[in-house]
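A common beginner's mistake is to predict each chain separately and then try to dock the pieces by hand. The better habit, illustrated here, is to supply every component at once so that their relative placement is modeled jointly.
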Amino acid sequence: VSREQFPNGLSTIEISATNRGLAYGDGVFETMRCVDHEIPLWAHHKERLLQALKRLQIKLDEPLLESELNGVIAKLPAQGAAVIKLIVARGDSERGYRADPDAESWRLWQILPAPPLYSGLLTLGLCETRLANQPLLAGMKHLNRLEQVLARLEWQDQYQDALMCDYHSNVIESVSANVFVLKNNRLFTPRMDRCGVAGVLRAFLINRILPQLDLPVSETEISLEDIRNADGLWLCNSVRGVGEVGQWLDVSWRPSPRFVAMRRALHSGLHPEWGK
Amino acid sequence: VSREQFPNGLSTIEISATNRGLAYGDGVFETMRCVDHEIPLWAHHKERLLQALKRLQIKLDEPLLESELNGVIAKLPAQGAAVIKLIVARGDSERGYRADPDAESWRLWQILPAPPLYSGLLTLGLCETRLANQPLLAGMKHLNRLEQVLARLEWQDQYQDALMCDYHSNVIESVSANVFVLKNNRLFTPRMDRCGVAGVLRAFLINRILPQLDLPVSETEISLEDIRNADGLWLCNSVRGVGEVGQWLDVSWRPSPRFVAMRRALHSGLHPEWGK
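With all components supplied together, the output reads:
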């Protein structure tokens, strides 16, 4: 799938010179997998987006959001997968940090090629870059992403992703995904209330898929030692799906039937073409 | 001074749709007071900028920086004050967080009206928004500024600025300035190694002005109680200059001759027209 297929695979855009997304990272984003004109996780993306905008006091008219999304989807071929990326920044003001509370948000919609879903056994590293604890921003997919950028600078192609800890050495997430740890037929996933991005697929798994599978899941603190002693380590990302880790540092795991069952339940819960 | 006087008081700009400043706040900025075609603090702005870019591994050709600055200054009227704002973002890549290590940075120069220097006795508040400790980003004027945006949302016009603490209740800075605390003829200013922006004027005061004045200064931890017990509280900002706080919550201070002496030394150390 090449970018040229997508009518708004934008190369340049015109923005206000005082755009607050650019000036301060003052906004949030969503990257959404669209399959056959449908975003199976849309309700969850929308919920996270609106919650974040509320926390940040950014105004967005919800019917406008829906109508813009429909306009973007209408530009896509009827069949196939694509990624729709939405950036919402706080509306303009010209007063430094001070915001205009009445300014409607600014939005950028982009259509991008869908990357392949995770497949096979993933190899993970461990980042030296740590996440700061900031409860006021925790969970949101906001535009202040220098920690992830610094973390991703730590390696080239040696592994597909890498775990990140906070300064208390709790494992929080990988650079691009949320993590689930399998131990004694239970799942554990890091709390997202002090740092980290609370992924949309993570929420869907916890609330909709895992309850079908007799796989109890807890949101908790997870140490590197917990990962080392785990029976399995899984990643999830709303664009790449779910992935099973085969190797992390000197620890290896074999493919697990529990992962296969979870992935099957996820794919049938999402969209008939999601896993194709 | 109106914006229209400035030939590049840009209203809109064209950027790449994948601009990393917009997508991730992946860059830094400087706002610089220019007086009569001169930026008195340029050497310090440049030093901070280059240090930050080095820490973030963003490429910027230094001669190019100087030549672009000269081009911007040439557009200004020969007399008078203006603010030059520079945003430097990491050069484009199209791979999510992953950066292209060879990409030259992207730069945006803007000419803005100079705000008045601080004058009179300032009134300060105290923010509930706290700064997260992140040594990897501390000190830099990077584009991840959601904490300052949230802090500035806490008030309208009741005071001119407000102090911010970290989660250990150390006072770090105000939303828009660095702070100096006067106590027993000594100055104290918060450490900038865990959070906060290490201001260019702060550095100039510490290294060049205060040593002339027999005002010993220490970079240290400062509590709210220290502020309450202080003999004076001063702000500094490279665009607004130095300001003396008259009121903070229920604490008030009278004008101090030490402040007047410091400001006089600063102004004559900067530029004959700086304080006009």
